Amino acid sequence: SQQGEEDPQALSIQEGENATMNCSYKTSINNLQWYRQNSGRGLVHLILIRSNEREKHSGRLRVTLDTSKKSSSLLITASRAADTASYFCATPPVGGGGSNYKLTFGKGTLLTVNP
Amino acid sequence: NAGVTQTPKFRVLKTGQSMTLLCAQDMNHEYMYWYRQDPGMGLRLIHYSVGEGTTAKGEVPDGYNVSRLKKQNFLLGLESAAPSQTSVYFCASKPGGPTGELFFGEGSRLTVL
Q1: A87, A109 in Cβ contact below 8 A?
Q2: What is the pLDDT of residues B22-47, one digit of tens each?
Q3: Interface test with B, best of A9, A51, A99, A103 (most B CBs within 10 A)
């Protein structure tokens, strides 16, 4: 069953601004992943954060994980028009025992970056 | 290195027809998956495989069958297509082990009339 849920469903910002998306999940996990999907394309992995990590960086991406609140956030700094895409968090399913060989995805946040 | 390749990319079927979607990966990955993506529903897992010759049901398996006769290929079959199976289908693969990223294909858009 679905584990993660992204918020907001849609976000529209201007180029150069920061974009923050959130993901809430239901049960304990050993890691959480974020993916990006450009319109009409497949999903691309962005970053994985383990349960013993609180923050992780990759270029202009910053991911945080708060296991006490069962939530994660994805921050994109200095956004560009090319960042326009849907962003998904992925977690092991409820009852999955923490192993993420069978990931479940949220419904995604549609980010639009206006030039 | 092609990664994950799905064929066909587009297909239109009539209700009751059958078809097979092919997924091929050249990364020697152990795990392979079929998801469907519908508007407002996100991605839902149909079937998956943790190795050659093995398959298992995901969240929405009804109406679909799969086979993994070769490690690099994962086939998704629709025996009698229904309009409810109109969707975009994504194949993904992953190396063995409990964690790690999924590598996705570009998707196959199926319309059932």
Answers
A1: yes
A2: 999 999 999 999 999 998 788 999 99
A3: A103
